[in-house]
Amino acid sequence: MRGHVGHFITEKGDIQANCDVIAGKLSFTFTFFAQVYLTLLSHNSFSVRSHTCGELRSTHVGEVVTLCGWIQYQRHGMFIILRDFSGLIQVLIPEDESRAKLKEFCDVPVESVVKVMGKVRRRPAGQENMNMPTGEIEVCAETVEVLNVCQKLPFEIKDFVKKTESLRMQYRYLDLRSSQMQYNLRLRSRLVMKMRDYLCNKHGFVDVETPTLFKRTPGGAKEFLVPSRDPGRFYSLPQSPQQFKQLLMVAGIDRYFQIARCYRDESSKPDRQPEFTQVDIEMSFVDQAGIQALIEGLVQHMWPDEKGSVSTPFPSMTYEEAMRDFGVDKPDTRFGMKVNVPFLRDTFRQPGGCVQAICVVNGAVILLLEDGLFDCILSCSVDFQQEVSVVVVKTDGTWKSPLGKMLPESVKQSVHQMTMAQPGDLLILAAGQQDRPLLGKLRLYCAELLEEKGVALRDPTAFHFLWVVDFPLFLPKKEEPGELESAHHPFTAPHPEDADRLFSEPHKVRSQHFDLVLNGCEIGGGSVRIHNASVQKFVLEKVLKEDSSLLSHLLEALASGAPPHGGIALGLDRLLSIIVGASSIRDVIAFPKSFRGHDLMSGAPSFVSKEELRPYHIDVKTLGFSKFQPLLCIPVLSIKAAAAFQMK
Amino acid sequence: MRGHVGHFITEKGDIQANCDVIAGKLSFTFTFFAQVYLTLLSHNSFSVRSHTCGELRSTHVGEVVTLCGWIQYQRHGMFIILRDFSGLIQVLIPEDESRAKLKEFCDVPVESVVKVMGKVRRRPAGQENMNMPTGEIEVCAETVEVLNVCQKLPFEIKDFVKKTESLRMQYRYLDLRSSQMQYNLRLRSRLVMKMRDYLCNKHGFVDVETPTLFKRTPGGAKEFLVPSRDPGRFYSLPQSPQQFKQLLMVAGIDRYFQIARCYRDESSKPDRQPEFTQVDIEMSFVDQAGIQALIEGLVQHMWPDEKGSVSTPFPSMTYEEAMRDFGVDKPDTRFGMKVNVPFLRDTFRQPGGCVQAICVVNGAVILLLEDGLFDCILSCSVDFQQEVSVVVVKTDGTWKSPLGKMLPESVKQSVHQMTMAQPGDLLILAAGQQDRPLLGKLRLYCAELLEEKGVALRDPTAFHFLWVVDFPLFLPKKEEPGELESAHHPFTAPHPEDADRLFSEPHKVRSQHFDLVLNGCEIGGGSVRIHNASVQKFVLEKVLKEDSSLLSHLLEALASGAPPHGGIALGLDRLLSIIVGASSIRDVIAFPKSFRGHDLMSGAPSFVSKEELRPYHIDVKTLGFSKFQPLLCIPVLSIKAAAAFQMK
């Protein structure tokens, strides 16, 4: 039974606290900052404890300390292992204590909260535990006070005890006691503080809080509604402070940021968080390159030391390149397996289009017998309505595939050349439209499969940042491909090189939108905005065919001396989850909602009485049973009963 | 036409930027901090401008600069006064420019946005403007580019132009261009940053974001509801993160803070903000004195230099003393005029109770003829159901009042002694119950009246912090005085000296709740919380008669090893408004709601189609017209029509 929680907090402050800083002659201004930042960070100020459990070392030997914490476990009926957020310490109930008292503490359940006063002493020779940062010493208790008895627990508070996700959520206050969740939440706080420091103290950004009770935006189907006491009127919880940040630029705030709570009602997505946090930034008198440089500096400044270093500038790729080489607009560049166009489809005497291929190195050796791979290929093939062929490159370099006979040797040669295929590799070929999401998806799936088989494809400690730029400004609507919708949002400015085309060929216009991608996840999206009222009006009315009167306040603002401006929003939850290597953003949120958007701890959302709804002038509709529906429901309930009904 | 916007930004960073810091020999750790905090704060990084308008001085003479800003006004057809957030600068369109170009810029409307490139030069002798921080120099334009033309404005952007509140709200993005609003928002950002620095960097607090979509709390009549896609189920927007902060203590976070958005649906109050911000703090292993000391340090650390200094510890007063001496639980201690008990009511041969008095110095001279005073006295007298008498102390020391004849000379003598009344003063006497809110209210009203008349009663630059402690734990319910309700919230711990009484005489128990009062406004409330599950259950079930199952998750958490803990919440909006001397919290909020909770800029809350309500399974009730109501409505619509109806 060794200390398995360990020393999980190593903040800058701790290092600093142990450094003797001799600052020398300092100017007044410097003294101000020195005072603020160089005094010791204290976790014990204003507290009834004198030290945290985890901070004690052999340098404290002889000191009388007061500790508060949770009983992690007991040893030999004479040691209590005490835990707080900073780590573990061994407390000895000495032999010379009255046996009654000792007995009492042995009966206190684990996870009870106690206060211990005692002297730090070196552990007897041979009893040190070098796996425990406090393992050279122990505290010899003089008084122990039980502050709260732990009555019962649904699971043990030990890192190695695996809990189901729903149990973790239901007892989140216990789940958060784990060293991983403590690390995640504390890292989050630390990184956010560093971002604020960079934006506020280094670059003059102003932290402005914007409202979350706002007006419904046109087409805001994902916005939660909040009924007001004015009959029939609703507030809306916005998906982002987009309008407000632009209005703040019109207001001359010049540089705005906010760690902003955002809301999105996405019932269709399984892993949804109805509320999430974004680092929201907007600047005046800036171009795209300026915003990108700002963010590169921000990431570098906030990056935790323990995760290596980040080099800037980040590589950049156009949307077109990303789609061409990776089949996706957020490429995971930690590995190759690029999509290639080894030959035109004309080869098959079908004019137009082309054939694309990815080469899975050693895929034939490792993946060929994986059912998962073929299931995935099949379902992708159906989803994307494209033909997919799998080719095994045999040891002699020939193809094992029906395609092998259909293609001339010269074409096969060129495929090998382009994909650098070697014996043992697997070639996946697809024929269809130009955009290659199918191969993009298979590429990622193969990577996962290879890793499951133990192939070290992606370095788990690597962080590959990437800008994807030059997105299209508009895309054809899915339901009505003849009409256009904004690829991102209607406030995005057209690419300067395509500005004139906006009025003639809007579908060909590139935008000044850009995404920040980390390890294949989109963690931010930014753009230069339209600052000209008439351009904005044109986009809303003529291109998007929307009712611009719903945004009249924004159009008026643009006409009142709006500066050129642009900005970005980073998804804080996603960014944090990648940094700590969590599989879900739920692991970097203190109290997340479940898959279905429920709070499993409190039971939210919950039923509300008719009485409580009255001030809001709303009624809950009875489950789909309007007055015309009961008859239609009968056959569903019972076909026999319906038949009986008709026979009457 | 002088520069009236002036130099309204003097942040620490600016001072620092002008200091040459020679840091000497620094350790590695120190270098880290030096790197972070001692590099220049730049407002121009990543921007197309080289300088802000307000930062230029004679030291810049000869430099070629690029400025961006708004045209504040023009002079003599050859000068443009350019404005950005940092101040004003004069731009000269030189004589040797082509006249056409000059003409063009003279036609550009004020508040248009321009970019100017040119050389800084000293103004010709005699043309300096020493009222303008940039008044020694001007920029001789080489190129001027119009970035956006201001088309029309509802009001001029000049500080001296008075706007109605509703116009300011409707065009908030223009209102925020004023120097006062720029100062308020920038100060807010700066102070919040300092608070974070104190809590995070100095005292080890962890910034944790808690959900705002939560479960309705018992009796949460002021909570906004958010319909979910689960039929009949609603989220609730919490009034504070109270439950979450306590759960975080159970989770071992140890020290939590959050600048938290909170929601309160108070239709009854006229000056309401449905969303507001509180500085939310919670600590484990702390007592009341510890929390108070933490907050005193916080206020001192964040306090802006330009508002003087704050000395600690803050004075403290019990709830009983506050009610006794000031007739209110949040006394404005910037002036005296205390409530006195000069004689018992028995004097009037009515047993029990007493007579209280305040003495308005020079009140007889200054206020006697004020209708407002007597209206207020009358309405208070009715509201509080108490008798009020007004006594004028005449020049000879005798009383002008009906009471004069009723009271023996000895009693009058004691009144004078106690209240220190002098000729010319006004005595206000009230007889009624022990709690003296009536005189407390009149005291404040008289102070306002005196100040309106030019009496310097309260120093407008003074900031009087005060702790009010030892509040009662429970109060009789207003509707049912035989039952008790929490004076603050049901999680407040009883005062240690009264702990045993909780089970026998709960109405006599004092709490460990304490308020922070600044200049007569409650700006914060804190308490030590109940950490024992059975005590919490007793309070909920036996004292408050509430259904404790609605809080079962909290009770379970307290039973799972909850540490002793306590915390506080400061009202950030109110605190800021007092610091900047604003009459309303709307002046420290970027986009506030109106009196009635509306956003006058966008029109929120707004009507929503039946279609949009469908996913949430709710219907808007037709304005009180249920199927039985139309007949009842007829008389309201037209009595004549109703009469005609009945005559048929």
From TrEMBL, chains A, B:
Gene Ontology CC annotation, any one: mitochondrion
Domain of life of the source: Eukaryota
GO biological process: aspartyl-tRNA aminoacylation
Every Aminoacyl-transfer RNA synthetases class-II family profile domain range: 185-605
Any coiled-coil regions, as ranges: none
Keywords of the record: Aminoacyl-tRNA synthetase, ATP-binding, Ligase, Nucleotide-binding, Protein biosynthesis
A GO term for molecular function: nucleic acid binding
Pfam families reported in the protein's UniProt record: tRNA-synt_2, tRNA_anti-codon
Family according to the record: Belongs to the class-II aminoacyl-tRNA synthetase family. Type 1 subfamily.
Protein name: Aspartyl-tRNA synthetase 2, mitochondrial
Gene: DARS2
